Amino acid sequence: MKLKTILAAMLLTTTFIHADPSPFGLEIGTSTIGMMKEKYNSKFIGINNISQGDVYDLDPSELGIEGMQSARVIYDKSGKLMGVFTTFPKGKFQYLFGQMKSKYKLVSSTIPFVGDTSAKLTNGNTEIQLVAPHLSFEMEMNYVDKSLLKAAKQKKRE
After folding, report:
1. pLDDT of 112-142, one tens digit each?
2. What is the C-alpha to C-alpha distance for residues 125 and 81, in angstroms, rounded to an integer?
3. Which residues, other chains included, contact 109 with Cβ-Cβ below 8 Å and sequence gap of 6+?
4. pTM to 2 decimals?
5. How much is the average pLDDT of 37-55?
6. Whole-angstrom distance between the N-terminal and C-terminal Cα of the chain?
7. How far apart are CA 96 and CA 57, in angstroms?
8. Region of residue 33 (phi > 0: left; psi between -120 and 50: alpha; otherwise: beta)
């Protein structure tokens, strides 16, 4: 009996480790437009020129994160979530970085005393980016499917 419990715990842990992040309860690469609309009020913005999917703005006050100024979700042609893009006051960088670092694998970070501050983390097929430009009052925290990042880099080269 003990062996079955341990085995079940290991299988569940493995499943969660490989799952993509779910910012605001929307799993990157899996959640659909319909799932988002069931949870949140949204405003259709247009079609993303890279993913060819719908783009929506969400009401930050519904998302439950203090200080969030904006939230945008991008889908692919089939209606799967490819990215969540948010803005915060720049002063939130250290707090958000600490939270993300405790959840996801840190790939790189640049945290100078003065200058642009950034961090890149990863989980599954998702890259989490924190970017706080030196001369800005805002910072971005983005969850982006790696296939969307790859397509954006490819389009930039063309």
Report:
1. 889 999 999 999 999 999 999 999 999 999 9
2. 12
3. 97, 118, 119, 120
4. 0.84
5. 96
6. 59
7. 21
8. alpha
